[in-house]
Amino acid sequence: MGIFDVWNTRFNMTNQTLEILVIDDKKENRKAASDFFSTQGDLKIDYAFDYQSGLKKLHEKTYDGAVIDVQMPYKTGEEAHEYGILIGRAAEDLAVPFVFLTSKNYEHNGTQRGSAIYSDEFCLTNDKGKITAEKTTPKAWADAYSELKSVLGTPEMTRKAKERYIQVNGRFYRQSLVKNKSQN
């Protein structure tokens, strides 16, 4: 198996299905996400429930996008902190587009409970985000996915971006192999 065969497998190049990672520690939120995403057809959704599992999944597979909760525990059973921000930074380093979807006490449709969607860490700390329904409803996940799709484009556009990434990084990989052989 050649390097490009490995990379094609790692980067899901043969599949036109978009793969999305949802990271949220609350079961009822993941259920609402599942209810929404199951209606979307050609998507593969993976779920993580804390910082450790989210980071592990991000490094195991190259996702087309991610929806990340801000407040989550480091590992299950611990107190929640803003570990989602760290996962967002890791996703950014891995070139995985993402949005934050976080519960806040925002007014939404006349109630004091809602969620907010942020496209990056800067927006998270500097504006109030796009206000949406509570995360326990499929509507919040629909809005988050809509925001994520505005970055992702079509599956074909995503595939072409991955091909460019593989070509550039494959060249660097081959150069590093040659360099390592010459040093040994």
Give a written overview of the molecule:
The protein has 184 residues and is α/β, with parallel strands linked by helices. The protein has a single domain, classed as Rossmann fold. It is built from seven helices and eight strands. It has a six-stranded mixed β-sheet with strand order 2-1-3-6-7-8, sandwiched between helices. The protein has a two-stranded antiparallel sheet with strand order 4-5. A hairpin with a 6-residue loop joins strand 4 and strand 5. The radius of gyration is 18 Å and the shape is globular. The two termini are 24 Å apart.
Question: For this structure, what is the CATH class?
Answer: Alpha Beta
Strand order of the largest sheet: 2-1-3-6-7-8
Number of DSSP E strands? 8
Low-confidence region ranges: 1-10
Q: How many separate structural domains?
A: 1
What overall form do the CA principal axes indicate?
globular
**Strand coverage percent:** 15-25%
CATH architecture: 3-Layer(aba) Sandwich
Helix content: 40-55%
* Biggest sheet architecture: 6 strands, mixed
Spatial gap, N to C terminus: 24 Å
Name the CATH homologous superfamily.
Response regulator
User: The CATH topology, please?
Assistant: Rossmann fold
Order of helices and strands: HEHEHEEEHEEHEHH
The gyration radius over C-alpha positions equals 18 Å
Structural class: alpha/beta
